[in-house]
Design brief:
about 220 residues, alpha/beta, 4-stranded parallel sheet, about 10% strand
Length: about 220
């Protein structure tokens, strides 16, 4: 039975800021070698939201999944404020330069939308329903799924989410592993001299990816 590894998420699993021409690879590649998976699919995509992992998993199921495979999926949880309902990297600042020509009522609409959509209640709802859907699809396709957060803690979930599949139930992040706990929501901050980040801006360097791979390998191997 082929052993298959699948990584989903944003630029962290993608390998953002790594130097491919120097042989640097993201944690999924390292994990594949450490645990000797036969196949590896990396769906990481820069700027992706948690909701985008729904599309990523569906893509895998449609194009690569085989019922005879033994599949392990590692899902990286990103900034929960991101959403697939808006174009990636969209600024929602009503007073940004790109909107300086907008009439005042249009700017007010943006302000009202942000205040409505980005409440803590909506964030918990979107995160919980996304993870619930991923866990259900993985269960239906006999995929062993694991979830960990890069830098934003997830202290609150709706009932029904299987918290055993989420590293420290979302209350410890890879940033904590790095000793890098400061962030602005969108990325880590104050990491200019962090051994697991430098010389990158905010993404793990090769040492950081190795630490993630080591943590995940231990977790996977300890799971019954």
């Amino acid at each position: 039975m082929p052993q298959v590894l699948l990584t989903l998420g944003d630029s962290w699993p993608q390998g953002g800021e790594l130097k491919e021409d120097s042989g640097q690879v993201p944690y999924g590649n390292l994990l594949k070698d450490q645990l000797k998976f036969d196949k590896f699919y990396n769906y990481g995509s820069g700027g992706a939201s948690n909701e985008d992992t729904l599309y990523q998993l569906q893509d895998y199921l449609k194009t690569h999944w085989q019922s005879t495979d033994n599949v392990t999926a590692i899902i990286h949880l990103t900034n929960p404020a991101r959403t697939s309902h808006l174009p990636r990297f969209t600024s929602l600042n009503a007073n940004s330069d790109e909107r300086k020509h907008w009439p005042s009522d249009a700017k007010q609409f943006v302000k009202d939308f942000v205040l409505h959509f980005y409440t803590d209640t909506h964030t918990v709802m979107r995160s919980s329903t996304t993870i619930s859907a991923l866990q259900y699809w993985c269960q239906q396709h006999n995929i062993q799924d694991y979830y960990f957060s890069g830098w934003v803690k997830y202290p609150t979930w709706w009932p029904g989410v299987n918290l055993d599949k989420i590293w420290a139930t979302g209350n410890e992040t890879a940033g904590d592993w790095f000793g890098a706990t400061s962030h602005n929501g969108e990325h880590l901050t104050g990491v200019e001299t962090n051994q697991y980040i430098r010389p990158n801006f905010a993404h793990p360097n090769q040492l950081g990816h190795q630490l993630i791979a080591d943590k995940l390998a231990t977790w996977i191997q300890s799971t019954p």
